[in-house]
Write a structure and sequence with these properties.
By secondary structure, this protein is an alpha/beta fold. The chain has 18 helices and 16 strands. Strand 1 and strand 2 form a beta hairpin. The radius of gyration is 26 Å and the shape is globular. It starts with about 110 loop residues before the first strand and ends with a helix. The relative contact order is 0.16.
């Protein structure tokens, strides 16, 4: 679901090397705010506990003798080589999984859109956590229910559509790859419209803005339009960097104006469009937090508190049990209530088959090799990645053929859900506006209305349905694993069983499930994944374990470059210039971590 011109021509200007501080940029009306000095570390910061050792392995502090001497053991029997036979030590308690968290500082926060020329992707985590805790599913307040206007008890079915918008950052703002400024791919297209499909750049610009023109017009005509929006952090930054302020101003109107905000639901996503199964789990959490930071800096904390659903890049769901668990735990820890999943990326745990009722919400339950379990509501997207499904509003016509189903002893309407690129392809660029207006008109007041997913869930729970009433799914291929390994057996046993299954069946894998089953995000990309993993390890060592406050410029700058290097586009387009882009951004991130820390 990447939308790029493959022909990217020459490269370009300005260095982003770590030894040079990024130049402050004047970006529209963004205020320039001096970064406050962080306060002393709070004792409430997350701690990372070391694995517990068994009692007999306890140590005294250096230079200190034990208070009581252990009794003298009897002589050990000798084995044939003359060495004493020693009893095997008791097994150590299995450590629980954990992610090392950054050093979140205690300070009043700064929600300027840019700080020292870098997008605001870190530094105010504690304020974010408080905002999200106040609106978390454990103590929810409805976002859409009271203004919905949908008679949920009367309708037969509902339809939800989402528009995915993304452009990567590329080192193409100059003629030399190693010194070129990192710019939005849309800007490169705009500046080089004579190459390949780059002539689409102005149309893309309109696509990013037009939904915010359509919604007010339809509302003012008395219609009930609905749409879910997902804009990557790299695109939001690129739009501002290009001074396309009109896009963000229009989006602010539909997000913040009480006359229109019931019509639009924002979905969270990884800031840099990182693919969850092949992104280090600790980095994926940083992407999730960074997008929340960036969104709050543009639209405000109140708007962020209304973001309840999450859209994974490329619809990629991890299926390795340990990675899948961390994926779900990250989303829940960051305040999300539900996640969008592709129907072919999940299975029913009792039989390993795809869900038989995909149009009702499910519960995605993920257990890791230590036996820990995390779960989140899953809204299932059906069919593949064809942009025409949304461009021609196909899910609405499918929904009109559906009837209410039984769930938890109650009759509920199914929700037919689709997501597609919001600007990519001729059908989306040219046919979507007419079909969206037509369906918004036809569905208003009908028994098959347009609804957003959180709006639907709020109606569902208001009628007495509870989360435990939802059927359970798990990531694909996990049943075959759990048939041979038990939760709590640990990662070594899990790895052994995975290798056994791979040898028995060359179709078996733990690379995750996605909207496509003919593209691997891992195989053949070692030249990108290798540098990416090295940068990730160095960031963990220098920034995370080094306890660098997340509001320091060097932390934010390193994070920005690391996340940009993990964008899926550097693998989606195959070997060549795009893998060169990925390697170059990794080099810059590595230099920042080497010389600025």
């Amino acid at each position: 679901m990447n939308k790029l011109s493959k022909n990217t021509g020459n490269l370009a200007k300005t260095t982003t090397s770590s030894s040079i501080q990024p130049e402050s940029k004047k970006l529209g009306d963004t205020p320039k705010i001096t970064q406050p000095t962080p306060k002393p570390e709070s004792t409430s910061l997350p701690k990372t506990s070391a694995p517990i050792s068994p009692p007999e392995a306890k140590r005294t502090s250096r230079g200190e003798m034990p208070k009581t001497a252990a009794p003298t053991p009897p002589p050990e029997p000798k084995n044939r080589g003359g060495m004493p036979k020693t009893a095997a030590p008791p097994p150590k308690p299995k450590p629980k999984s954990h992610i090392d968290l950054p050093h979140f500082p205690d300070w009043e926060g700064d929600f300027s859109e840019y700080i020292n020329g870098v997008p605001n992707v870190s530094g105010s985590e504690k304020i974010l956590q408080k905002t999200l805790l106040d609106s978390s599913p454990s103590s929810p307040h409805p976002v859409f229910l009271h203004d919905s206007g949908i008679d949920f008890g009367r309708i037969r079915s509902a339809c939800a559509v989402a528009l995915h918008m993304h452009q990567p950052l590329i080192p193409a703002g100059g003629g030399d790859l190693h010194t070129a400024e990192m710019i939005c791919n849309l800007k490169y297209m705009w500046d080089n419209q004579c190459i390949g499909d780059n002539h689409n750049a102005p149309a893309f610009h309109w696509c990013y803005k037009r939904i915010a023109e359509f919604l007010p017009q339809l509302v003012n005509e008395g219609k009930q339009p609905r749409v879910m929006l997902e804009y990557s952090g790299t695109l939001l930054h690129g739009l501002r960097q290009m001074e396309l302020h009109d896009v963000l101003d229009y989006l602010k109107t539909i997000t913040l104006d009480h006359n229109y905000r019931r019509t639009v639901e924002w979905l969270g996503c990884p800031w840099g469009h990182a693919v969850a199964p092949s992104t280090p789990v600790q980095d994926f959490r940083l992407h999730v937090l960074a997008w929340q930071h960036h969104f709050a800096a543009i639209f405000g904390l109140e708007a962020l508190s209304r973001v309840r659903g999450f859209s994974p890049s490329e619809m990629a769901l991890p299926n390795h049990p340990d990675i899948a668990y961390e994926f779900v735990k990250t989303l829940k820890d960051c305040g999300y209530q539900w996640v969008l999943v592709q129907e072919h990326s999940v299975e029913r745990p009792e039989n390993g088959r795809n869900p038989d009722r995909p149009h009702i919400p499910h519960r995605l339950v993920c257990t890791n090799s230590y036996g820990e379990t995390a779960s989140i509501i899953a809204i299932i997207k059906t069919q593949g990645s064809d942009t025409k499904l949304v461009a021609q509003m196909q899910p609405y016509y499918e929904a009109r053929e559906q009837s209410r189903w039984d769930l938890g002893g109650k009759s509920v309407p199914p929700l037919i859900t689709q997501i597609a690129d919001g600007e990519n392809g001729g059908v989306m660029m040219n046919e979507f506006p007419h079909k969206f207006f037509e369906v918004s008109n036809d569905s208003t007041g009908s028994d098959t209305p347009l609804m957003n997913a959180t709006e639907y869930l709020e109606h569902l729970f208001a009628m007495g349905i509870q989360e435990q009433d939802l059927p359970v799914v798990q990531p694909i291929m996990q049943k075959r694993l759990w048939d041979r390994v038990k939760p709590g057996d640990g990662p070594e046993k899990m790895a052994q069983v995975i290798e056994e299954l791979k040898k028995e069946d060359n179709q078996f894998h733990v690379e995750g499930g996605s909207w496509t089953n003919n593209l691997s995000w891992v195989k053949g990309y070692e030249n990108v994944l290798g540098p990416m993993e090295k940068v990730s390890a160095l960031f963990n060592e220098k920034a995370i374990k080094g306890r660098i406050p997340t509001n320091e410029h060097r932390y934010r700058n390193a994070l920005y470059h690391m996340m940009a290097s993990q964008t899926s586009c550097y693998r989606y387009w195959g070997q060549g210039l795009w893998t060169d882009y990925g390697q170059e951004i990794c080099r810059r991130a590595h230099d920042i971590l080497t010389y600025d820390f």
